[in-house]
């Protein structure tokens, strides 16, 4: 209906176009991206997808410029394996604890904050490497302000160093290079500077724009100087946030804890998250029951650039999901449910396993060549007869393969095989076991049961012609 009005054509025209693609849709049904594109093309339109602009846009309260104040930089450490990322994170974690505070950073919650002299703070994401960084970016989360790329000075610029540089540059995040292992006899930072300049990356001491620092993550030599350079870079970025509105930020990690339920680490990016706040993160909602910092201490609230562990989510969101504190819990729940439903719908349409209803759509897109079938039946004779007839349905376009045929109930192992080889399961005069049915639901495997051979053949044939009406 929406698509019809956007293109100013009749709804029935859209429905019949979908039918010609083998999809029987109702007037209010949402179409997936591929189908939308194909259908719109039929009417001479090109489709461009834009981010949903619905209520989501209003979740984040606008800022009055008078309300924003400087915030701490958020830093990710990247670099080649064994060049010293973890050692550097550990050294900073262990040494830079707020003066006089007992304990230090005791817990790994995915991020931690350190306080330097003059009460300057820096927040570090505690998962080094560009994989996590890029996975978060793929989900639309832009968390990192500054990237430290560690290069072992006794080694050289390595493949993952290049990758890290590319990823940081793609994200538009400024880079500071840490030439590590400077305590080692073979260390030669100038060699690394030269390799960088060969990649068009000119370091500051050679007249370029990139700050560098020679350090030893092992002994801690010059790590403080490195952190000062981070602060300098941060100053140039003029990082600011409003600390006095409802909190917004990003999920860093989430896990199920046996005793405490869902434990979610979030990084507050603006506003202030408080105990008692209704909260929405990804497809889940909840209410903040307790907040804990990386020192294992309970806190009442967390402001901009602060990582904090949240208890009280109803489900585990995914790293990179955006979170928002909201006015009311019902509102949070409603948006969460909407998102969950949308995700299910999209998931359903882009499922990876074949179903009979799916064939028409895949045919229309032109990426369907083989139909894998597992046949289970009550007696040998009918299984053979059915399999033979199914094989004969092969056309120039679609090859039918019987990847397994056997007497007996449809079992879990049949479902696993179907899942691994993208097959459908046909049961003739047999049914799936309870556990097989459950697994099939989970794995989204299509199980079809028949008691008349002709029906089975006819239905598969129709599906292969892209004409099968979906069953509900
Ligand atoms: P990652 O893979 O980048 O996280 O590297 P690690 O931090 O695990 O370090 C790899 C190895 O290098 C470990 O054996 C560290 O002890 C060692 N290492 C790290 N930094 C230094 C350093 O500054 N000096 C020396 N001598 N060894 C270091």
What does this protein structure show overall?
It is a single chain. It contains 15 helices and 21 strands. It is an alpha/beta fold and 472 residues long. The model has no long low-confidence stretch (mean pLDDT 87). The two termini are 21 Å apart. GTP binds at residues 79-86, 126-130, 180-183.
As laid out across the biggest beta sheet, the strand order is 3-4-2-5-6-7
Strand content: 15-25%
Shape: elongated
Overall helicity: 25-40%
Structural class: alpha/beta
Bound molecules: guanosine-5'-diphosphate
Number of strands: 21
Count, helices: 15
Computed Rg: 29 Å
Q: How many angstroms separate the termini?
A: 21 Å
Q: Report mean pLDDT, rounded to a whole number.
A: 87
Major pleated sheet? 6 strands, mixed
Give the uncertain stretches in residue-range form.
Answer: none
